[in-house]
Amino acid sequence: MNKSLPETGTVALDRRLCLAPMMEWTDRHFRYLLRLGAPRMLLYTEMVTAAALVHGDAERLLAFDSREHPVALQLGGSDPAALAQAARLGEAAGYDEINLNVGCPSDRVQSGRFGACLMAEPALVADCVAAMRETVRVPVTVKCRIGIDDQDSEQDLRRFVETVATEGGCRVFVVHARKAWLQGLSPKENREIPPLDYDRVYRLKQDFPELTIVINGGIRSLPEVCTHLARVDGTMIGREAYGNPYAVMQWDAALYGAEPPPSRHELVRAYLPYVERQLAAGVRLSAITRHLLNLFQGVPGARAWRRHLSENAHRPGLGVELIEEALARVPEPAGLAAAR
Question: What is the reported pLDDT for 104?
């Protein structure tokens, strides 16, 4: 095992708490909302294919607000040249990291020869990483599974990581602690049915102490985050961050010893200027309000909040007043209301 690995990038990012890349969920509107209450969390975009950036509207696909930093761009692809060009575009757009998707198991992704199926081709993944690293100065990282189909032994995982690290120069691996079944399970089932094996990720860190290992999969509480951080270098939060974003904002404050996040009501009010800017740029109101639905999870009035937004966001001509109307349906803590 080669212990003298080349450095990747010039930016040192804190990876103790990361937002997982989730298709149709972690778009720029949700990331901006989460950033208002979680100022230190490392955010990841939805996966964008290299081909879409190289041949499509890269400016639109890469657009984000400067307040989102630190934010990583996740790419999908298996052509080293195309990925290098896409990574260059991402760095030029201001992203703090380029991440290669080697974990998505969907049929569409497999048909493009990228995602989790690439775990069967570690040499190709190493070539892709090396090509991107030669092009950009920001870190180039890999997000993978612990295995795929019948190729899921610890030896297979170690071989994959060692190849990508030594031949590609990757020093950061985000590991979803579930294997992926490329045939027979849907992407949703692949997030739930294969059992979690955190210990395998812990042992991976023991085998490669010089690498940064971030663990992903099924993390639902701050105590769980802390338990993982005793064994690996970082945690990545997926569905819990979207389903209960305010809780994750509280984790951010507690983990970094900072002041608690603003109240939910204060967050919504702070979000309104952003919404106004996006509406003025032609974004549909419903494309933004859908990310607000879970903000009041577990709070009295949450159902009325969700219902008002869901039933009215598609009506033409509405603006931020719809959000203000929904907010009025959620009782505000007495101290906050008096302070206004």
Answer: 82
Crossing angle of helices 198-207 and 154-168, rounded to 10°: 40
Domain locations in the chain? 17-255, 264-339
Pick the catalytic residue: 18, 104, 144, 170? 104
DSSP string, 10-25: S-----SEEEPP-TTT
Q: Return all residues near 56 (Cβ < 8 A) that are at least 6 apart.
A: none
Same fold, 17-255 and 264-339: no
CB atoms within 10 A of CB 67: 12
Architecture of domain 17-255: Alpha-Beta Barrel (3.20)
Lowest mean pLDDT among 12-16, 258-262, 270-274: 12-16
- Please write the tens of the pLDDT for every residue from 99-128: 999 988 776 655 567 788 899 999 999 999
Clarify whether 117 is annotated catalytic.
no
* CB count in 10 Å sphere of residue 64: 18
The one-letter code for the residue type at 143 is K
Rounded Cα–Cα distance for residues 13 and 174 (Å) = 13
CATH architecture of 264-339: Up-down Bundle (1.20)
Q: How far apart are CA 280 and CA 42, in angstroms?
A: 28
